[in-house]
Amino acid sequence: MTAPRTSTVPRILIIGGGFAGMECAHKLEKELKPGEAVLKLISPMDHQLYLPLLPHVASGVLTPQSVAVPLRRMLRRTSIIPGGAIGVDPKAKAVVVRKINGETAVEHYDQLVLTPGSVTRQFDIPGIDEHAVGVKTLAEAAWIRDHVISQLDLAAASSDPAEREARLQFVVVGGGYAGTETAAYLQRLTTSAVKRYPGLDPRGIKWHLIDVAPKLMPELGPRLGDKAMEILNKRGVHVSLGVSVAKVTEDRVTFTDGRELPCHTLIWTAGVAPSPLVATLEAETNRGRLVVTPELTVPGLDGVFALGDAAAVPDLVKGGDAICPPTAQHAMRQGWAAARNVLAAVRGTPMTPYRHKDLGLVVDLGGIQAVSKPMGIQLTGLPAQIVARGYHLGALRTLTARFRTAANWGLNALAGDDFVRTGFQRNRPATLKDFEMTDAYLSPEEIRAVMASQVAGRSMTPEKPELPIN
């Protein structure tokens, strides 16, 4: 089966509007000549989400608009398809899309750029599916904020000591950057909020950060990892390493060391897994991520590029079998590299391999506390915080987003926290599956069935001509 054509203009299709996808589209818009190609981007959201700042949204320090850059502010020549890619047929050079209104459509391509990102990594642990929530979407961040404040409200209104204990215990699983920052920011929120609850004893609020690894954020090195641990311990966060979750119920968390905590809040940040879309291609993977060449092409699949969290991109700087970590820093730069290579494929010129030296790591723990490692230089305290927030401001893609973020940080520093439940997520199921839609994808057999029905219908319904970008 071959992709139907209406013209000789190449069709470039990008899946995903995150760091990698949006940067690739933005670069292509700058470099493509008028009429040189048709450029489309598939995304269920109309914004690029700046994931590293979601803990700030969950704690109310930043508004959601601060970390959501509208795609249409950045992309002027790209057709944006509002939906999610749920299957890819490389032989037919087609992508099955479920639009936000539930309709299913098929988009054909000549060059495909896969940047579907990642989802929260889950394990076969009883209760995780039903009772854990991640920190991967704006909806999850908004839900977490409402939920944490609601636990304080319910505890303050209860006369049952056992219920109060369960409401005031919070567990964050995952000692990486996302988990550590989430625990740090939410602990600051509840510490500030409890002052407004005269009937609550601040000592009753307990935050737990657990991770199966022996060290907190080992990528930072022992000195900075130990400093982050020290900061959390001084704030009263209970850090347990070498421990994981054995079982979860609606009101209890059981750890692998045998401890049981009465608890209504489990925030799951134990790593990420590539988008389930990867499995629909039936291509070679490395720990779930698509195997790609240094030029970001997928071996054996004509016209397919993959990058970002869903691709195992060789790290040429480190060499050997190393692959690039799934970070925003790499995703953005891979987007630029992919755009250059897509242009090369369209124009028949040589491609160039992706190569980038990591600029360092930043961990914002709230207030003036942070640990950072820019270009290998180890910083703590206020200097580290200046570097961390300066990096985030620079990485945000519009002046509007930078201004909103800086203004929110300044307002929070001067006026303190507010403790308002918005309520708009109160009736939504709070599960990883519901928030991240991990069960929306088709099997290869289902994709082929969709393609067969689409071909049968095409003989009766003429395809509308596609217009090249101008």
Brief synopsis:
Belongs to the NADH dehydrogenase family. The protein is α/β, with parallel strands linked by helices and 470 residues long.
Structure report:
Belongs to the NADH dehydrogenase family. Keywords: FAD, Flavoprotein, NAD, Oxidoreductase. Residues 11-335 form the FAD/NAD(P)-binding domain. InterPro entries: FAD/NAD-bd_sf, FAD/NAD-binding_dom, NDH-2. With 470 residues, this protein is α/β, with parallel strands linked by helices. The protein contains 14 helices and 24 strands. The chain has helices at residues 19-31, 54-58, 64-67, 71-74, 128-131, 138-157, 161-167, 177-193, 222-235, 328-347, 381-395, 399-415, 432-436, 444-458, and strands at residues 11-15, 38-43, 47-49, 68-70, 79-89, 94-99, 104-108, 111-114, 118-120, 169-173, 206-211, 238-241, 245-249, 252-255, 260-262, 265-268, 272-274, 285-286, 289-291, 304-306, 311-312, 360-364, 370-374, 379-380. The strands form seven sheets. Strands 7-6-5-2-1-8-20 form a seven-stranded mixed β-sheet. α1 runs parallel beside α10 (328-347). Residues 459-467 have low confidence and may be disordered.
